[in-house]
Amino acid sequence: MILLKKTSLLFILFWSIGMTAQNTYKNWSEIIRKSDASWFASAEAKKIAENVLLYQRDIGGWPKNIQMQQELNEKQKKDLIALKKTAVETTTDNGATCQEMLFMSKMYAQVKDERYAASFLKGLNYLLEAQYANGGWPQFYPLKKGYYTHITYNDDSMVNILNVIRAVADQTDYYSIKPSKEVVEKCKKSFDKGIDCILKTQYKQNGVLTAWCAQHDEVTLAPANARAFELASLSGYESAKIVLLLMSLEKPSPEVVTAVKSAVAWFEKTKITTLEEKRVLNDAGKIVDKKMIPATNATPIWARFMDLETNEPFFCDRDGIRKKSIDQIGAERRNGYSWYSEAPKEVLKRFPDWAVKNGTKVSASEKKNVTLITVAQDGSGDFTKIQDAVYACPAFPYEKVTIHVKNGTYNEKVRIPEWNTNVILKGESKENTIITFDDNFSKIGLGRNSTFYTYTVLVEGDDFSASNLTIKNTSGERGQAIALSVVANRAKISNCNLLGNQDTLYISGKDAKQYFKDCYIEGTTDFIFGSATALFENCIIHSIKSSYITAASTPEGTAFGFVFRNCKLTANADAKDVYLGRPWRIYAKTVFINCEMGGHIKPEGWENWSKPEAEKKAFYAEYNCTGEGFQPSKRVSWSHQLTKKEAGQYTIENILKDKISNWYLR
Q: What PANTHER family has UniProt attached to this entry (predicted)?
């Protein structure tokens, strides 16, 4: 009798502990995603599974926002049994049905209870039956009157469904239940229809593909309203998961590639880096207020609701009246809804690698060997963005790839990666083909090396050439701001305008040889700087303010650094005291030959940048220059005036000598 009492007490104790452990889960989603597979064989998991079976309607779906782990009393169980035949509130909203199917799959993997498998298959059948003929899904099925009939991307509903169906169609091991071949075929067709629906619902803004709305009309596919505070708009949140789904396709069609690229361009265009969210919490850790505060170079965020025509963010209270800022709506909606999102950051993070893998598929001609790509803002070319054209270039091609850029102002950062060699970037005209951006040191905000991220155009791929372009950094007097950064070997820039302020042109790269011909380069402090061996020929070098033209960091032992030959040095009227250069590193080499120097050049010519050792190790020299600014007798004593014989060594063949001969003539 005593032993029986002890056993009973122990049972009660363990049962109590089990219930306490069960109640520690605050969210149903936490349980579903448990990584401990063996847990799904536990008594606790089996008990929860009984609840999940009870909540599933006979039609196969589940209601949303149910904490399935909470214990049910007998009345609740009877009520749920009575509801089974009704299909009341069955939905895919907020992860419903998809997450319960995942739970049942994890249960069946550990416990071969055929009820679990049957439950999963009923759920799958529910998803297939709920799909519209056009490939979309409503928020509730059977259909519920109101906005619930719209095709819904809201809270990633349709993406979640498609991920389930694809896993089945591809016959992966993600789910432990294996449907029949007939069901697998249905899933394949269903997935393809879903992708087609996504492509057809991508919104065109003034003829240009952008992103998606949270809801689209199930008949017209146009953006649609939902709740009063959820007006038709482009969504910075829902669109992100849609794009990630498209990017995950193994062999994307040209239409899919175009959709992704267009959406990425829209994300870049609409990102917000001037605001940060500040959350005010009470003692219980609950949000009692949200405020958006001004910030400089903040982590990018996107508004969840953006105007269909202007992309301007807007916000609504339950009265459905659009407001321009979050502080204009009441506390209940302001604090109880996610108005901003970081979700597109993941798209932008993955996009470069995806583009390298899939970029060659977007050429209009679909050639295996892409040699000409046209960029035109009016849509008459292969692309409207230069960066998209770069993504379409093959890696390490055997032939030159020409990106022909038609006239227009292209407001974008352009990067030509190390693997995109042999690229020719050719503008229609130097004056009217303009690449511009406005990053600067403070805006980038990545620490002491922020300068190197400020470029408008970055060239990393060897054997690059650019012509007939204007490359501009429009930051103005906001510190370091690179227009063109070239860290490649055998780069030739001809007939280009390079415009900026401080640090306009950065030229570097290991053993890099670079050639600038017939260019106009303007800026102020150190506006031509770096470690490359570079020849500037027949260029106009224009100083905006009194400061320094060059700041070479030539590596020790390098034969030539910066060489200016037959160039003209000009300046704004208020730039009266300009140095030819100063040493960024102590072995700096800079030489001016046959150059015309305006009166803005200081008589002493060169400055040591508070580095006395540079006076012995740097090499600054001139030969046969002209103009008011050429005053050899007044130059600093540690600079040089070359003899004719010495100057004779500064030929293009010697300066730009490389294993590929005469590369600069091509």
A: ACYL-COA THIOESTER HYDROLASE YBHC-RELATED, PECTINESTERASE 53-RELATED
